[in-house]
Design brief:
2 helices; 13-stranded mixed sheet; 13 strands; disordered N terminus; 2 domains; 205 residues; OB fold (Dihydrolipoamide Acetyltransferase, E2P)
Length: 205
């Protein structure tokens, strides 16, 4: 479940980049479907995976595919100046983070912003999940919890992060990370010739 949430949040942010906006100006997520599994073989940009239930499928990396990996992080990593994406729920201005993703400097500004979604008492940025993307201005708290002040163009949000919040560190990568045996999750679109073209790929557990 967390893998899918991470996938959708990161994908939504990545697809907001100008390179995608120029080619898919209407809705870059349109027609995309999620997938996950373990890589069996790699042949250039084509790779085959075994997914849930033992099903197999072949995918091809798009020339513009964004490749990332994630690793476990802690509240201590949420320091001032970091660019983060925090999924959150709450009412009356009180937001409680369920996930926080720390982005690398190369992705600073990606998906920046804050907006509501159709699920009750939730917010999101550039995607299907609750997210606030911005720069951590301050981090203070006690008892293993912290309160982040996350700023973005046009505003800021105060978000509570507890020991139960799932925190990850995101790293930007390339096609060399795609190897037999690694676990992957991604978003792909089926082209008119039947090729399943991957636009986003998350590598890792």
């Amino acid at each position: 479940m967390r893998t899918n949430i991470l996938l959708l949040s990161a994908c939504a942010a990545l697809l907001a980049l100008p390179s995608f906006a120029q080619t898919r100006s209407a809705n870059p997520m349109r027609g995309m479907k999620p997938f996950s599994g373990t890589v069996d073989t790699v042949d250039g940009k084509d790779f085959k995976i075994t997914g849930p239930g033992g099903t197999t499928a072949t995918y091809r990396l798009a020339d513009s595919a964004r490749i990332m990996a994630s690793q476990a992080a802690t509240i201590a990593d949420l320091t001032a100046g970091k660019f983060v994406g925090c999924t959150a729920v709450g009412t009356h201005g009180r937001l409680r983070a369920t996930e926080c993703h720390i982005f690398p400097e190369s992705m600073r500004g990606v998906g920046e912003g804050h907006s509501p979604m159709n699920r009750p008492n939730t917010t999101m940025t550039n995607g299907n999940i609750t997210m606030t993307n911005g720069n951590v201005q301050t981090a203070s708290g006690a008892g293993g919890s912290v309160t982040l002040r996350v700023s973005y163009k046009g505003g800021a949000q105060t978000i509570e992060v507890s020991p139960r919040t799932h925190i990850t560190m995101i790293e930007a990568g390339d096609a060399s990370w795609l190897k037999p045996g690694v676990r992957v999750a991604g978003m792909a679109r089926t082209e008119s010739d039947g090729t399943v073209l991957v636009q986003f790929l998350n590598v890792g557990p």
